[in-house]
Amino acid sequence: MPDDASPPTRRLLLLRHAKSAWPDGVADHRRPLAGRGRKAAPAIGAFMARQELIPDLALVSTARRAQETWELVAEALPHSVPVRDAVAIYEVSARAMIDVIRKVEPPVKKLLLVGHNPGMAELALLLAGGGDAEALARLREKFPTAALAVMDFTVEQWSEIAPGTGRLVQFVTPRMLDEDESD
């Protein structure tokens, strides 16, 4: 590799599922999105399309609220994205999610995870070794439903990511998008 060539970059998109409902008698895994979630998910999808944050692969928790979030986000994207149901990211620790990410095939440059808190917030904070200071401060404060963290890694393969090796590029919440539209 020539000296002036920049190292390859992997982009990780972490999307917490949109706001869910809590119907009586419905198991956690089967909880659907609430009305607010049905509005927020397409807004995040439209933002992703505008910012060209289109993943090469989406790993989506098998929980109904995560699946519904992904369906609404995907409808706003300019083309279809390969998706895999990922039971391995439902209610697991940040370190368990890192293990899932490390197994992603090398051709995937941009990876999206659609999952749950507290794991998503813990994962973002664990991986972030720097980046946008304002975005990091918001992330430390709260990772709300339908929020999207965008992280870059200077690695050749997903198997090389480790705590502190990511750079937080953006952290966007549905509320921020609402504020942008009201200007």
Can you tell me about this structure?
This protein has 183 residues and is α/β, with parallel strands linked by helices. It has one domain (10-182): Rossmann fold (3-Layer(aba) Sandwich), CATH 3.40.50. Helix content is 36%, strand content 20%. The protein has six helices and seven strands. A seven-stranded mixed beta sheet has the order 3-2-4-1-6-7-5. Strand 2 (57-60), helix 2 (64-76) and strand 3 form a beta-alpha-beta unit. Helix 3 crosses helix 4. It is globular, with a radius of gyration of 16 Å. The N and C termini lie far apart (46 Å). The model has no long low-confidence stretch (mean pLDDT 91).
Short description:
The chain has helices at 35-50, 64-76, 94-102, 119-127, 133-141, 174-182; strands spanning 10-16, 57-60, 83-85, 110-115, 128-131, 148-153, 166-172.
Give a topology summary.
Layout: E1 10-16, H1 35-50, E2 57-60, H2 64-76, E3 83-85, H3 94-102, E4 110-115, H4 119-127, E5 128-131, H5 133-141, E6 148-153, E7 166-172, H6 174-182
Parallel strand pairs: 1-4, 2-3, 2-4, 5-7
Antiparallel strand pairs: 1-6, 6-7
Helix pairs in contact: 1-2, 3-4
The structural domain count equals: 1
Oligomer: single chain
CATH superfamily: Phosphoglycerate mutase-like
What would you report as the Rg, rounded to the nearest angstrom? 16 Å
CATH level 3 topology: Rossmann fold
User: What is the residue-averaged pLDDT?
Assistant: 91
Strand content: 15-25%
Give the termini separation.
Answer: 46 Å
Low-confidence stretches: none
- The CATH class is identified as Alpha Beta
By helix and strand content, what is the structural category? alpha/beta
Give a short account of the largest sheet. 7 strands, mixed
Order of strands in the sheet with most strands: 3-2-4-1-6-7-5
DSSP strand tally? 7
The CATH architecture designation is 3-Layer(aba) Sandwich
